[in-house]
From TrEMBL:
Family matches, as Pfam families: Acetyltransf_1
Protein's recorded name: GCN5 family acetyltransferase
Segments forming domain N-acetyltransferase: 3-160
Keywords attached to this entry: Transferase
Matches recorded under PANTHER family: ACETYLTRANSFERASE, GNAT FAMILY, N-ACETYLTRANSFERASE ACA1
One of the record's GO molecular function terms: acyltransferase activity, transferring groups other than amino-acyl groups
Segments passing through the bilayer: none
Amino acid sequence: MGIVIRQYRSEDAVQAARIWNQVVDDGVAFPQEEGLGADEADAFFTSQSYCAVAEDDETGHVVGLYILHPNNVGRCGHICNASYAVSRDMRGRHIGERLVLDCLAKAKEIGFRILQFNAVVASNVHALHLYERLGFVRLGTVPGGYRLDDGSYEDIVLFYHTL
């Protein structure tokens, strides 16, 4: 199996929504509480500055994705933000790393200068280690910044990477 990272297309909506919704349903990474239907997903993914999917080049199945968009506007519009999702059955195969690396290159190509993560949940140790290994700088921690499904709160970590 080879993984190809390519730009999202509308025909990816059903598969991309399934993966996105898995992360939302897990309740330990994304801020969203409701999943996306195929039409909502297509509108959401196409509204981003860029959206990419990781595709299994043998089966054509989408196994991961990322969205890239401004983190702010105006004088801070050069800072972008991104979110990543990998299908549950494909985690642990470094697909997330490939998505992050592609995102860093695409963000720079688009003209962003900094990629900032506002809310990496502290228990997401795989993401924390990946970002640190890829040279992201830890800005700090927001105590209790993320509400888990059980109603408890967990810290979030902020990161940035200069492009």
